[in-house]
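Subject: for your reference before the review

Hello V.,

The reviewers asked for a structural picture of the protein, and I figured it would be easier to keep everything in one thread rather than splitting it across files. Below is the amino acid sequence we used in the manuscript, unchanged from the supplementary table.
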Amino acid sequence: MTPLGIGAVVLGLLATLVMSILVARTHGFHPWTFAGRYTYVFRDLKGRVTNLQTLRRTGNIYVPFGVEAFTYPPGAIFLFWPLVWLPTSTIPFLWSWLSILCLAVSLAVCLNRLTPRHWTTSLAIGCWFALASIVLMPVEVECLIWGQTATILLLIVVLDSLVVKGRGRGILVGLATAFKIYPVVFIIMWFWRRQFREAITALVTTAVATSIAWILWPTSFSTFVRVLIVGHKEFGRFANGGAATYASSSITSFFMRAPFHIGLLNWAWDGVFSVLVIALGLCASQKLWKMDCEISAMVCVLYASVLGSPVAWDHYFAFAPLLVLVIREVGLRSWLGRACVLALANFLIPWLFIHNSLETSTYLAIRDFVARNAILLTSLTLLGSVFATSRQSVPERLGQGERWRWKALR
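And here is what came back from the structure prediction:
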C-alpha cells in the first residue's frame, strides 16, 4: 500500500461525497448530468420513511396501500429500519452517498476480477468510474433522485457472486431475495449449475430473514401474504396500466402499450412471457459461465431478473456501467461486445424525457414506441447476441489461475 494509492482512494471518496451533496441539494435540477431536470426529489425514499413511521404507529407497514406504498417483502424492513435512527434532514444525503459507494465498490470488485491489482487502485478507479456513470447515464441519476435500492442490491449480488467463497456463499443473495424478490433468479441459476450448497444456503437465509420479520411484524407479514400476494394487489396495480404502460421496460409492460393494449394478456400469459425472458437470460448466462466469462454471466442473470419482473423501472438497470467491463471481458470482436456498445449508447439517452403519454400523431406514436421500448429491445438484443458469441471470439486464457488478457491482433 503506497501513499499514492491511499491518496487516490481518499480523493475518490471525497469526490463521491461531493456528488452526494450535489444530488441531495440541487432539488431535481442537475445541469451537470445528461439527464437534466427532474420534477421529483427522493419521493420513494421519503415514502419509505413514512412507511416506517406507519409501522411504528400501527404495526402494519402495508396500510394504506396507495401512492408510495411499501411494495417490498417484509424482510426488506430490515434494510430500511436504520433510517428511523437518522435525522430526517440527513437521510437524502446519506442514502445518496451509500448508493454511490455501493456502485463504486461493485465496479471495483468486477474490475479487480478482470485485472487484479492492489485494492486501493481498484477502489479509486471504481469511485471515478461510478461518478462518470452518474453524469452520463440517466438510469443512475434515476436511482439516486428517487432514493432507490438498485446499487445497494447490486453490491450484495456482486460480492456473493465474485468475492464470497466457501460455506458463506449464498447468504448475501438470500438476504437480497428477502429484501426484493427478483434476486431469486440467482438462486435458480445456482440450482441449474448444480451448485446446490450455494442455492440451499440462499434459500435458508431468505427463509430465516422472512421468518424473523414475521415474528417481529406479524400484522405486516399477514397483510403482505393475504393482500399483496394472494390478493394480487401489487400485480393488479401494474396490470391496470398507469406509469407501467409507458415507463417500464419489462416484457409484460411491452404488451400493455401501443401497438398492443392493456388487457391483451391475462396474468397467465404475462407469467409465460416472464418465464421465457428469464430462461433466455439464464441460458445466455450458462453459456458465458462455461466460457469462464464470470462477469458477463452475472450481468445476464441481472438482465433476466429485471426484464422478467412485472415492472422494470429505469433505475432497475443501475448495473449498466458493468457493460463496459463485459466488453473488456469478451472483447469488441465478439457479438456480445458489440451488443454491449449498442446497449451502452442506449443508456446514455434520457428516454424518460422523450416518451409522451399522449399519442397525437404518427410521428409521436413512433417516437414514443422507440422511447418506451429502447431499453427492452437493446437488452433482448444483448442476451440474444450471446448465442452468436463463440469461445474463439473472446480473449484467450493464458493458464490456470491467470485472468483474461488481450490477445494480440493478427
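For the response letter, the relevant points are probably these. The two ends are 38 Å apart (CA to CA). Strands lie at 29-30, 36-37.

Happy to draft the paragraph if you're swamped.

O.
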